[in-house]
């Protein structure tokens, strides 16, 4: 077991959705309309949470899916089953997106299986709560940035030669980028970097017909928080501070990822959508 994976296990991250109660709601809420017919999507962190909901919705809309995950084989197998139940093809690829070589392997296996890449969803992330900046170890700081932003760079670099005009990249940032988070200093900092990456990458690629956008979820019920990403006292009232008064479900976030991946958003690039329970942010 590598040092990286050992650290994640000690924090119980990324966590098994299969063991979470209540279960996150990932199910698409309406019939598909072939908005992604014939497309191929790579989705990181697709074994659970938001990533699973996005994979399910993309499949319903006609896409084949490369499911990228770190450790949870059972969750990844379930997402693969969900995609295939929609009549689409899926492959599951296990590894650490913080390692550059793994990004090359993701692209190779996706091309071998499907022959093309049309959509890249950079969703995977990790967080570790700390009350004081001095509590954040150098190892944790490097690890959080490695997963949350370096991984996006590596995978985008690997996929870029295979993305043609009409392709879409959708990154997952966070409401913490806009509000800040006193207990998630390193995590919220990476989310700020992701938003800047999204806007800059859009400027870089839009001339080639490749759109880049992002989604900034608020508090969403996924394995991320209950499996070590938040303190127990926060979980007792998770999401209650939003104007809507509850946490969101993954299926309430997935449509934003669909909109940004399909032609419905053909005049949008460099933008961020905010499924966050009614929290008002600038940006």
Fraction of residues in H or I helices: 40-55%
- Along the chain, the helix and strand elements come as HEHEHEHEHEHHEHHHE
Report, as a whole number of angstroms, the end-to-end distance: 41 Å
Q: Give the overall pLDDT as a whole number.
A: 91
Rounded radius of gyration (Å) = 17 Å
The poorly predicted ranges are 1-10
Would you give an account of this structure?
The radius of gyration is 17 Å and the shape is globular. The protein contains 10 helices and 7 strands. The chain is 41% helix and 11% strand. Helix 2 (49-60) packs across helix 10 (250-261) and helix 5 runs parallel beside helix 7. With 283 residues, it is of the alpha/beta class. 50% of the residues are buried. The protein has a 7-stranded parallel sheet, sandwiched between helices. The chain has helices spanning 3-10, 49-60, 73-85, 100-114, 138-159, 176-179, 185-205, 225-229, 232-235, 250-261; strands at 40-44, 64-69, 90-94, 119-122, 168-172, 211-215, 272-273. Mean pLDDT is 91; it is low at 1-10. Helix 3 links the parallel strand 2 and strand 3 (90-94). Residues 8-30 have a biased composition (Basic and acidic residues).
């Amino acid at each position: 077991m590598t040092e990286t994976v050992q650290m994640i296990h000690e924090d119980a991250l990324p966590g098994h959705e299969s063991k979470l109660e209540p279960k996150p709601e990932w199910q698409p809420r309406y019939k598909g309309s072939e908005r992604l017919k014939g497309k191929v999507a790579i989705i990181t962190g697709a074994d659970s949470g938001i990533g699973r909901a996005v994979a399910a919705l993309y499949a319903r809309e006609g896409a084949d899916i490369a499911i990228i995950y770190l450790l949870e084989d059972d969750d990844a197998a379930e997402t693969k089953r969900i995609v295939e139940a929609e009549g689409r093809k899926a492959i599951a690829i296990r590894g650490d997106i913080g390692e550059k070589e793994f990004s090359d392997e993701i692209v190779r296996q996706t091309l071998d299986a499907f022959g093309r890449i049309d959509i890249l969803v950079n969703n995977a992330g990790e967080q570790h709560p700390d009350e004081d900046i001095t509590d954040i170890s150098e190892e944790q700081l490097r690890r959080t940035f490695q997963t949350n932003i370096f991984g996006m760079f590596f995978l985008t670099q690997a996929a870029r030669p295979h993305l043609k005009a009409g392709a879409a990249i959708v990154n997952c940032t966070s409401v913490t980028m806009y509000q800040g988070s006193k207990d998630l200093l390193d995590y919220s900092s990476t989310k700020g970097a992701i938003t800047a990456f999204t806007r800059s990458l859009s400027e870089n690629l839009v001339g080639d017909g490749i759109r880049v956008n992002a989604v900034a979820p608020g508090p969403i019920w996924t394995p991320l928080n209950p499996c070590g990403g938040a303190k127990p006292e926060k979980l007792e009232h998770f999401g209650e501070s939003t104007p809507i008064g509850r946490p969101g479900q993954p299926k309430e976030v997935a449509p934003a990822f669909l909109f940004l991946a399909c032609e419905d958003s053909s005049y949008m690039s460099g933008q961020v959508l905010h499924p966050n329970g009614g929290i008002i942010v600038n940006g």
